[in-house]
């Protein structure tokens, strides 16, 4: 498959899930934002601009590489589809070329998994994306943040919305691994076959 020269403005749309505002920075629930911002820097996409109820940057992953758009919805996570749906429509990105990056409490810290489509596991950000895209058949990078020893919704919310319990180097390694997972999805799609 060859990238470039298509009619769509970008080949891929990467959507980092998180909540806007400084009070959510540095929390497990915002790891999707952390990874998306790391990719913007890694791919040297430049400054993000306000667009589609989010912060958006685009460019190429490398010279001659695929064109990517990176969106950080500035709605709350449970309304991410309000930003991502219109962005996908305007950018004309096929659904299987949308990559959502999100926290996953049902995976232990440090576990990063990818998949196309599937269930939503009660994740409100994914539910909103499904509503915004009218389908759940988009790519996911699921980032394990672990869960507390409780199913009490208030305890779980305090866990994901509180500060990381892991060290900064451990979180940075997790973000790097998730960035690599996004790149692998994009690169794998470019391979002939």
Characteristic key phrases:
193 residues; alpha/beta; Rossmann fold; 7-stranded mixed sheet; 34% helix; globular; disordered N terminus
Helix content: 25-40%
- Tally of discrete structural domains: 1
The radius of gyration computed from the alpha-carbon positions, rounded to a whole number of angstroms, is: 16 Å
Q: How many E-type strands?
A: 7
Task: Write down the CATH class.
Answer: Alpha Beta
* Arithmetic mean of pLDDT: 92
The helix tally amounts to 5
What structural category characterises the helix and strand content?
alpha/beta
CATH superfamily: Peptidyl-tRNA hydrolase
The main sheet comes to: 7 strands, mixed
Strand percentage lies at 15-25%
Q: Largest beta sheet: what is the strand line-up?
A: 2-3-4-1-5-7-6
CATH topology: Rossmann fold
CATH architecture: 3-Layer(aba) Sandwich
Q: Shape from CA axes?
A: globular
End-to-end CA span: 8 Å
| Series of H and E elements | EHEEEHEEHEHH
Poorly predicted runs of 5 or more residues: 1-6
Can you walk me through this structure?
The chain has 193 residues and is of the alpha/beta class. The protein has a single domain (12-190), classed as Rossmann fold (3-Layer(aba) Sandwich), CATH 3.40.50.1470. 34% of the residues lie in helices and 21% in strands. It is built from five helices and seven strands, in the order βαβββαββαβαα. The chain has helices at residues 31-42, 81-91, 124-133, 153-161, 168-190, and strands at residues 12-16, 49-51, 54-60, 67-73, 98-104, 112-116, 139-144. Strands 2-3-4-1-5-7-6 form a seven-stranded mixed sheet, with helices on both faces. The model is unreliable at 1-6 (pLDDT under 50).
């Amino acid at each position: 498959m060859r990238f470039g020269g298509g009619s769509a403005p970008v080949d891929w749309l990467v959507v980092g899930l998180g909540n806007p505002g400084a009070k959510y920075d540095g929390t497990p629930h915002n790891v999707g934002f952390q990874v998306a911002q790391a990719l913007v820097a890694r791919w040297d996409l430049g400054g993000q601009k306000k667009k589609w109820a989010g912060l958006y940057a685009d460019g190429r992953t490398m010279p001659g590489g695929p064109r990517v758009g990176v969106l950080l919805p500035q709605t709350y996570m449970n309304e991410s589809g309000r930003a991502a749906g219109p962005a996908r429509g305007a950018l004309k990105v096929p659904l299987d070329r949308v990559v959502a990056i999100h926290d996953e409490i049902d995976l232990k810290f440090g576990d990063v998994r990818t998949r196309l489509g599937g269930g939503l596991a009660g994740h409100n950000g994914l539910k909103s994306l499904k509503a915004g895209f009218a389908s759940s058949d988009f790519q996911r990078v699921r980032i394990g943040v672990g869960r507390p020893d409780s199913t009490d919704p208030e305890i779980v919310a305090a866990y994901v919305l509180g500060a990381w319990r892991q060290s900064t180097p451990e979180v940075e390694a997790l973000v790097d691994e998730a960035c690599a997972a996004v790149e692998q999805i994009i690169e794998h799609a470019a391979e002939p076959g």
